[in-house]
Amino acid sequence: MNFSLISLEIAVVILALGVLLGDLWTPAQHKRKLGYAAAAGLLLIFIFSIFARKELFPSGGTEILADYAFGKMFVVDGLATFFKQFFILAALFVIIMAAEFADRIKTGIAEFYSLILMALAGMLFASSANDFVLVFVALELITITFYILNSFQRNRISSLEAGIKYLILGAVSTAFFVFGLAFVFGISGTTNFSELHSLLSTNPVLGTQPLFLAGLFFIFVGLAFKLAAFPMQVWAPDVYQGSPAPATAFLAVGSKAAGIVLLLRVLFIAVPQVALEWTNLLIGIAAITILYGNLCAIPQRNLKRLMGYSSIANAGYLLLGFAALTRTGSSAVLYYLAGYLFTVIAAFTVIVLVTRQQDSDDITVLAGLGRRSPFLAAALTLAMVSLAGIPPLAGFFGKFLLLKAVVEQGASNTAYYVLVGVAIAGVVMSLYYYFGVIRAIYWSRDPNDLSPIAISIPTRLSLGVCMAGMLYLGVNPEPAIQLTKAAVKVLNIGI
Amino acid sequence: MSAADIFFYILAFLTVACGVMVVANPFSRNPVTSAMFLVLTIVFMAGLFILLNAFFLAAVQILVYAGAVIVLFLFVIMLLDLKEEERRKVKTIGAGLGTIAVGAIAFLIGRSILSYAKTLPPTELTLQGSTVALGRKLFTDYVLPFEILSLLLLVAMVGVILLSKKDLK
Fold this sequence. Notes:
The complex is a heterodimer of chains A (495) and B (169).
Chain A: H1 7-22, H2 34-56, E1 66-69, E2 74-77, H3 78-101, H4 109-127, H5 132-150, H6 157-188, H7 193-202, H8 210-227, H9 235-242, H10 245-270, H11 272-275, H12 279-297, H13 303-324, H14 327-354, H15 369-372, H16 374-388, H17 394-408, H18 415-442, H19 457-475, H20 478-487
Antiparallel strand pairs in A: 1-2
Helix pairs in contact in A: 1-2, 1-4, 2-3, 3-4, 3-10, 3-14, 3-20, 4-5, 4-10, 5-6, 5-10, 6-8, 6-9, 7-10, 8-10, 9-10, 9-13, 10-13, 10-14, 12-13, 12-18, 13-14, 13-17, 13-18, 14-16, 14-17, 14-19, 14-20, 16-18, 16-19, 17-19
Chain B: H1 3-23, H2 31-51, H3 55-80, H4 83-87, H5 92-119, H6 131-139, H7 143-164
């Protein structure tokens, strides 16, 4: 067996345990700095992952390669390496954000860092899962870690409420997942994705068994919870609002991306024959998710709650790429996620810094930000503009690619045109609330407190990287598109 | 209908009936009663495992769930002293919607199972879930998920201490 395949996971787990142990010998006033140590460790792991990727793709990603381990349960391929780098980068930003947030976490900041790393380990395992059993265990590792992260500010009732709500709905979605898994295993006799795919090719009748389809649908519902997509979207606003901001950011980026990679693997690697029949279902779910997120976001006055509804709407946009049922659509999903990472991290980092003095997430805390800190104001403005989908930022190009992939399929099913109409309507609606945030930054009555906001160097760096990433992905999308195209080569669907 | 079938129907009925009593007991709103019905549900479910020749699973079900987990439940319920819960009225809308949702899912699954059962040839049950085979599988094919579970337990432990310790420095 090839141990180098799980080297990233092992490194992250060791780092997490190291932080947990390091806490014991760190004096209380320096505990916050453990976060910077963890971030440095993650940076090393990220650099290492670039070399590991080069090893897998010696000629730049033109070939389909997959290395299996643990009896084909664990796979390292283009999709896995793309998402692993994505998750490591996300966790790196989130840990820097958590170090900035440390003064508001009364107890156990080192454990907070360590739990973020544990969730990261779960995400890394999830991105390589080629078997439903591994999917389930990795998902549970992620979800259970988030139960704790969400309720971490246990002196605040809203944080506890977020934890409980996430716990209950998480348990329901897990129940759906396991139930579906039992049906799929009962009918097909296997939990392995590769085996399931070859079974469906040799025996097409299997793909029409109602019990098998019901099982797959239940699994879909279980994964939709991670995405915050219909029919499992109700938890997002409350949990986003109550959780500590770094946990929310990681929930919005990491947990959502974990749902995306698993959905890609289940739908397009394990059961593409079934997924290709689900056109209308996926179109319907994408449309409802987009409308729900955007319509409910309009009256919101709480920043984190707004981001919660925005996250639902973005799950809908991501599902556009799934509904296209092509590799072009899937590569657009990956591209959109990459832009979403920089955007959401930038937005939440600013929220963490601005809400430090005032204990409120209301949109009015942004008043006068344009004068208090032009840098933060610029970062948040860029993030909102990118989320709204204005050129030349990453969000625009991502939405453009997703819609293009859907329109290309329009000839086969007229419902695709309806979906495009709904998506564009959603984008127009979203302009209103995203620009409401920008208006609050620059054009609201100045508050009495116009003191400048201090920003530490690591945070300044991470914000700078996020802004550069948003601009770079929007202005020069070609390298990233090549990267995503190489990553989705392993999917068993048409181009 | 063979004896195993009759046993199956009796046990399945009792499992479902006790499950209903856990969430919607018309005679008592006491959480302790609900927990005791949960014990019965789990015991009958263990009976279903025995019918499937999965003796080890049945034993684990009784030892871990009916034993350890329920004792924990009871401790929590008694420590919290949930008098409020008994007085709370059930909202009609909530109960109605819940019933509709459960009914819809039951209908979906029931129809799928019935349509599948017609195409299914009768099979002989064979002993598969023996302890040795299970252990061997767990430490060879499924060693990675098994090891990840240890991480999960560590996370759970850290979390419990963080969320429940009185004052943490």
